[in-house]
User: What shape does this take?
Amino acid sequence: MKQIVYHQFGDPARVLEVLEKDAVTLKAGQARVEVLRAPINPSDVIQVAGQYGVMPDLPAVAGNEGLGRVTEVNGDGIAVGQLVLLPAGAGTWVSEVVADIHTLAAMPEGDLDQLAMLTVNPATAHLLLTDFVDLKEGDWVIQSAANSAVGNYVVQLAKAKGIKTACVVRRDSAVAEMEEVGADAVLVDGPDLAKRVRQAAGAKMKLALDAVAGETFGHLAETLEQGGTLVNYGAMSMQPISMPALNLIFNDIRVRGFWLVHWFSNASKEERMQVYGSLTQAVANGTLHAPIDRHFSLDEIAEAVTYTMAGERKGKVLLAPNGM
Ligand SMILES: NC(=O)c1ccc[n+]([C@@H]2O[C@H](COP(=O)([O-])OP(=O)(O)OC[C@H]3O[C@@H](n4cnc5c(N)ncnc54)[C@H](OP(=O)(O)O)[C@@H]3O)[C@@H](O)[C@H]2O)c1
Assistant: This one.
């Protein structure tokens, strides 16, 4: 079997190595899973770079989510041939996973790419829309990095509830794709963003979702209504957040942070089942989806991470560890 391993934190294109290992014999209660798809998320890359909120002991196997098919079972509870989600955070950039059967979540047959991305981004989008502000039909939400996977899910989930989205991207070439997804307004980031949002939406925003930080954070803040909430959940610019202090004071802006890892630690089993139950259904029936740019093999890992972090993609990049 093959694994993508790192022995030190640093530039992912340099520190990630392909390691060949012998397959292990299953213990009682374990299953062997052939890994079909594993996305490369920004958080995976910054974890390898040593800048993430949780750091694995080294050496570590890279990758935090993915989808596979059970090929061998030593116990009850799952059948050979079943499609499963890999355990979150388990080191998923591998050709094969051996895991305890109870850690594998059975998935319906469907689009392999979309199902492989179920653990992280759809739940993030759902919780960003539900856990901060009580949004009603007709309310407006603004978001940066709107053409990201999370941003696409936010638009689709909001639309299903009659919530309107103002989508902020950093380049003209991403505008058309957001209009196609169903954004109610699409704007390119800039210092006069608030003025342009008001012209396009005719309303102030109730909630702002920021995955960029830097000056974008402040641009979003200026679009909010009095007492509006600004949630930062990503730092794609890797810049400190900045906003005009007077805007914070005079508009009583509520600034919050969100990390899915905290939600996982605090949510009850029932809450998790409720959130993932409806998201699994939506992803499996195609109502919730994110655009895909391209796939790489495990052997192409250096090129894959460099390509992913270069940005200006047409969608997500996934590893296909056992081919397409
Ligand atoms: N807090 C949490 O629990 C949590 C959970 C999931 C995701 N996230 C975060 O959510 C964000 C989106 O994740 P994703 O997987 O959906 O991303 P993705 O699909 O890989 O898309 C990345 C997005 O970031 C934009 N971007 C890249 N570099 C940028 C820069 N220097 N300045 C401004 N924008 C830049 C890209 O714009 P271009 O297309 O123009 O390059 C694109 O919109 C990431 O920051 C991720 O870490 C956080």
Notes: The longest strand covers residues 30-39. The chain has a mean pLDDT of 97. The chain has two domains: 2-117+290-319, 128-261. The first helix runs from residue 12 to 15.
